[in-house]
Amino acid sequence: MLIYCLALLVLQAVVTNGQLATVYTSCTKPNVVALTFDDGPYIYEQGIATLLKNNGIKATFFINGNNWECVYDDAMVTALQTAYADGHEFGSHTWHHYDLTTLPWDGTGGIHDEMWRTELALQRILGVSPALMRPPYGNYNDEVRSAAYLRNQSLILWDFDDGDSTGASVAAQQAAYTNVANAHPNNILALNHETYATTLNNILPFAITTLRNKGYTFVTVSQCLGINPYQWTAAPQTRTSDWNCDI
């Protein structure tokens, strides 16, 4: 914690340099779909990852630390490590899923604290330091972009939302995928949430078939943008007593 506090002092000293993280709202490669899943890890992650693997698809998961489940729970660690071993990509969705634009710059519960805790979890569990961050609710301002820049991260938004998190029915979500497939934009950066059984059982199989029939190729976010997903990778760490969500 002392190292973390010292690091924050350094960040405070240089934040006013005016440099802001890049914000991506769509893919840059033609004829691709990047499927993304927010708000995990949760009980459906392993099933989603396996379904994707069985269809030859790699996707991107933006995870929280302590939202629907604690990222350090044994089942969640297993789900993350299994999905990562299958080639899926992971970015940060911050710790609690708070609106970052409402938080102070630093200190407990601040912007950097929300970012740092999830980064630490990914470093411990997967051995990766994320270069991609999705702000909760898609909300950001220059202060959030400054914090992300200092943490060497890009902000990843989306250009298609199936409406699962706002209560859209299965039929409405499938219609949304049908409509975007028929419109056939040059590429699609799709927002989904891994926290609903219908995503696994109803929406994802439908979306895969519908988009493939329109000739799209499925890729990860880093592939669709031509950027690195991680700042560095290493071996995952061994669990210690501080792997918990009570910190």
From TrEMBL:
InterPro entries per UniProt: Glyco_hydro/deAcase_b/a-brl, NODB_dom
Cellular location(s): Cell membrane
Cleavable signal peptide: 1-18
Swiss-Prot/TrEMBL keywords: Carbohydrate metabolism, Cell membrane, Cell wall biogenesis/degradation, Glycoprotein, GPI-anchor, Hydrolase, Lipoprotein, Membrane, Metal-binding, Signal
Source taxon at top rank: Eukaryota
Main location: membrane
Cofactor(s) annotated in UniProt: Co(2+)
Record's bilayer topology term: Lipid-anchor; GPI-anchor
Signal listed as a keyword: yes
GO molecular function, one term: hydrolase activity, acting on carbon-nitrogen (but not peptide) bonds
Pfam short name (any one): Polysacc_deac_1
Any one of the GO BP annotations: cell wall organization
UniProt KW Membrane keyword: yes
Record domain NodB homology: where: 31-219
Gene Ontology cellular component annotations, sorted alphabetically: plasma membrane; side of membrane
Protein name: Carbohydrate esterase family 4 protein
